[in-house]
Amino acid sequence: MHARILAGIAVLLAACTEPQPDAYVTRTGGAVAGEPAGTDARNEACQVQPGRSIPADRPVLRAREAYCGGWTQPAARVVELSGSATEADLDAIAASGLWRSWLDQRVTCAAPTRTTIAGGGSARLLACTRRTGGWPHVAIVTAGPSGPVVADGVATSLPVIERLATGRVGGGGTAAGSGGRSAALELAVARLSADAFGASDVGRYEQLMALGRDLNQTENFAAAEDAYRAALAVQERVMGRENPNAATAMLHLAINLSNQRRLAEAGVLIDRAAALAPRAADPATGARVLHYRGLHALNSGDPAAAIGLLQQAEAAYMALTPNLTAREGDGSDLLADPLVQSAVLGLAEAKRNRAVALSRAGRGAESGALIAESRAVLRRAGLEPNMMVGRALRTEAGTDIRMGRTEGAAQLMERAASRFAVAAPGERPEAVTLFLAGQQRLRAGNRTAALTAFRAGAAILRARQIGLQVGLVVPYLDALDQEANANPGLAGPLRAEMFGAAQLAQRSSTARFVQQASARLGVSEGNQAVQGAVRGLQDADRELRELFAERDAAGPNNTALDERIAAAQARRADSESQVAAAAPGYRQLLLAAVDADSVIRALGPDEALLTMLLGPREGFVMVVRNGRVDARRVPVGEEAIAALVNRVRRSSEIGAGGVPRFDAAAAHELHRLLVTPLDGTLRGASTLVVAPDGPLLALPFGMLLGTPVQGDPTGAADWLIRRHAVVHVPSPQTLVTLRAAGTGSTAPLPYIGFGDFVPPSAPQFARSFPANRCGTDARLATGLGRLPGTRSEVLASRALLGAAPDRAILGAEFTVANLRRQRLDQYRVVHLATHALLPGELSCLTEPSIVASPPGGSPSADPAFLKASEVLDIKMDADLVILSACNTGGPGGEGGGEALSGLARAFFYAGARGLMVTHWAVDDAAAALTVADTLRRQQGGVSSAAALRGAQLLILDEAGRNLPAAFAHPYYWAPFVLIGDGRRPGATSAAAGAPARL
User: Fold this and answer.
1) For residues 505 and 468, is the Cβ–Cβ distance under 8 A?
2) Residue 170 or residue 188, greater confidence
């Protein structure tokens, strides 16, 4: 089981095992309805109604609960007991007995203080702190009209407690006369913080914590992050950033960040929580820190470290629990103590998590016993909730899978799915487990049972608009493929189902990023006001995330930062309202998965979509064309495909020895695996839209070779670009949403271009890359020479598109400041011809950047870098953004086949419909020719895809004639690719896209 799931389990554990709100005061029903009880110390109106009794050494005469400030949980409980109420009785009740034991399970209290309440009655006041959240709490023992009265509640409820205890609530809910001031209230005033918080704040905190728990339980980690972050904000606002009881919410927030692979942010919060934990009111906080560090280590790919941390967590939990090894009975006494219950559940989960860590570390034989121990702990304590049992069964099934016990694993998975269906019906845990069960049924040869499980899981995923890891989805496609081969008459609908199933796989971060941007275009349908509203919401989300990360790492009492966050939250709320009014379909468009019919409707009559899904050992490639889906199995997995991609790329990029010999064998093998099986369906398609997967994102598909080549391929070789114009999209969903945006930009001006930058000087680079840390970077950056060819490239492009002379910004005028001053949303084509720097090339560069000219008098090179984060703030409405720079579409330092760099993603977000980017360092002359000829053809009325194809075919056809023969090498003609549609005219002609001659 994946560490993300495991980490989510731990968050559920900590959240659901802490005492719930009704562990402090008993829930008596739904809406509050009762008699007025006056106001609390914060002037919040309160109501009183009958409540349940609590453990006490004397008979209970009456129990009442007070609700204040609209909170749906009782703010206080007042219980009247029978018998005498002498001073000695009050002392005894306050110091020991059943009521005091019940209180101590939920709060930590200082020694009782003798005092008086309003009316002069003797009382014992206990200043307490709630173990969950650390909120100030009070308890009081006093003499009532009929005997002793015991009460406790949120600190601000003390005035209400006094009125109820003395019977001074009149018909209007006000005190029936003061009868003397309250010394107890004066003693508690320092803890009341009446101006800082009230019952509604405590209620808000607990509601948010419960919401975070529920969202985490369904493995919706991003939404759980929002809930826990809001809970932490309430707590820190009232009690300060360094209050030790903030550690609990901080840990919940941290592990949800870790689940999303935001590991650095999570680590900062875990460290902060660890520093606070020793002083927290909840004694389990230290154990939880160890537990969460272990789960974070699993998320970070370090099972060995996780094993040690989880073992330490087990020992810490054990110190808080009774001896369970020889325990008998139903565990009802443990259930009465929420602290022990929390520790028992923590112990069980830590054992189970360690079992998984052992398995991931190659010590699977040891994991079975730990899983059994985990179940035994829960059973002995009488604590076997469906969610935890489901996860235990799923972990046990994982052990069976590793031991080759397929049938047993399938049965355990099905039992686990049934448990999840009760605990969280229709949520991600149930769907994941159904897919795992289907995988085991398929391995056992029961395809019918496998498809039943897969389809049930897929229905949940579609309803909840969530995805799964590729490795879980590929077996579903395998089962459908087997079924289609066994039943040719049903092949059509089964292949279409395969396409839809492939869309259930979680896509790369690039696909999600570009999908967000394309959704903005799709929902607007050319309406600039709608585009602006959606863009405002996306910008607000990005701003808040950055501010929250800054606050997580900041020191205490950062009022200015808190004010910025509050202002950003207000802006986001306003943006949300604007989007809801202007574009109610945005959320659905952003989240909905596409089916084959949606793609069929989006494709033109001469277009085909080629997409694929690569699993660990095998994959599938699919084509949508002429209203139907064809699919074929790829007999190798992602690792083998990645090796072929690397061979092709290494043989395409210039190195120290010049341009290497092209690996034609690898280029043909990729074609044989991915394209050849579908040649019949693809034949005749003028445009091929490619939605690659995994490492294939790093490859220009036009350079694949359809037939083997002996020696070096020539321009006349069977390159894929000779058969089709090629468009790349991160996912089929992106294609559908981009096509909803119409055919083109509404910007009034044709073109603006930037080029021929003046490189920063060696001293300027040295200041940006200090020699003691970044000396190598400084030497590499200093080697960036001027690109004189880009001047002619930009000037030729400007002339071709008929732009004004001042729309070519060159030389020293090409600065970042000058670029940002331009209204780039007024241009249909934006062209940047310069160098690009990527973090993988310069170790001290934190994000991808385009290099411009430094402004006059700049002491360093920093102002010359246009960073990806700055591009996000640019507003565009461009058919085409040309990034004629080195590696603008390269891996970007992210790995995993993320071929779109941060720069490319940023420009898409800024408002580009199409990006023409490069996959490796480009030749100056070839780049100028490619860009100019592409724009010339586009001006002739063809699409951006056909125009780029025409320019590439021109180079191939003229290589060895009017161009050097070396230009047939992909280094020269293949690096440029089109991502997204670019320009899509209403009609194109084949002749317009035909290659010209020099």
Assistant:
1) yes
2) 188
Strand partners, 610: 623, 690
Q: Using CA atoms, how far apart are residues 266 and 277, in angstroms rounded to an integer?
A: 16
Q: Stretch 882-891: mean pLDDT, rounded? A: 63
Max intra-chain CA distance, the chain: 113
For the CA atoms of 265, 268, 269, 274, the dihedral, rounded to the nearest 10 degrees, stands at 150
Strands 827-833, 880-884: pairing is parallel
The phi-psi region of residue 426 (left if phi > 0; otherwise alpha if psi is between -120 and 50; otherwise beta) is left
Residue keyed to tokens 């704040």: 201
Q: What pLDDT is attached to residue 805?
A: 92
Strand (E) or helix (H) holding 144: strand 136-144
Name the DSSP class of 463: H
Q: What is the spatial distance between Cα 334 and Cα 329, in angstroms, rounded to a whole number? A: 10
Find where tokens 């397929």 sit.
406
HSE of 475, CA atoms in CB hemisphere, 13 A: 27
Yes or no: say if 540 and 571 are a contact pair by the CB < 8 Å rule: yes
Q: Are 263 and 4 in contact (CB under 8 A)?
A: no
CA-derived radius of gyration, the chain: 33
Q: Which residues pair with 60 in a beta bridge?
A: 81
Tokens at residue 326, please? 């020889």
Of the candidates 324, 228, 342, 336, which has an alpha carbon nearest to the alpha carbon of residue 281? 342
Provide the token pair at 803. 């732009």
Helices 285-299, 247-259: inter-axial angle, 10-degree rounding: 10
pLDDT in tens, 652-711: 988 888 899 999 999 999 999 999 999 999 999 999 999 988 888 888 999 999 999 988
Determine the straight-line distance between the first and last CA of the chain, rounded to whole angstroms. 59
143 — phi, psi (to 5°)? -95, 120
* Distance from chain centroid for Cα 207: 23
* DSSP state letters, 663-685: -HHHHHHHHHHHTGGGHHHHTT-
Please tell me the distance from the alpha carbon of residue 740 to that of residue 603, in angstroms, as a whole number: 11
Phi and psi, residue 690, nearest 5° = -110, 125
Task: Spell 772-793 as b/e; 16+ CB within 10 A means b.
Answer: eebeebbebbbebeebebbbbb
User: What is the Cα–Cα distance from 127 to 135, expressed in whole angstroms?
Assistant: 11
What is the Cα–Cα distance from 797 to 303, expressed in whole angstroms?
55
Quickly tell me which residue has 């058969």 as its tokens.
Answer: 723
Q: Six-digit token pair at 169?
A: 């609530």
Listing DSSP states for 909-956 in one string gives: HHTBSEEEEESSPPPHHHHHHHHHHHHHHHHTT--HHHHHHHHHHHHH
Question: Is the full-model pTM beyond 0.70?
Answer: no
With 0-12 / 13-18 / 19 or more C-beta atoms within 10 angstroms meaning exposed / middle / buried, residue 694 is buried
Alpha-carbon torsion angle 158, 161, 162, 167, nearest 10: 160
Return the structure tokens found at 319.
Answer: 């110190």
Residues 955, 715: Cα–Cα separation, whole Å:
8
Residue 791 to residue 12: CA distance in whole angstroms: 59
Rounded CA-CA distance 549/422 in Å is: 36
Burial class of residue 123, CB neighbours in 10 A (0-12, 13-18, 19+): buried
pLDDT at residue 86 above 90?
yes
CB neighbour class for 962 (10 Å; exposed up to 12, middle 13-18, buried from 19): exposed
Neighbours of 573 (CB within 10 A): 11
Q: How far, in Å, CA of 876 to CA of 245, rounded?
A: 47
Q: The tokens of 393 are what? A: 């069964």
Instruction: Give the residues across from 959 on adjacent strands.
Output: 963
How many whole angstroms separate alpha carbon 475 and alpha carbon 620?
Answer: 10
DSSP helix/strand/coil, 373: helix
Beta-sheet pairing, 827-833 with 808-810: unpaired
CA 373 to chain centre: 33
Strands 914-918 and 107-109: unpaired
Instruction: Return d(Cα 166, Cα 161) in angstroms, integer.
Output: 9
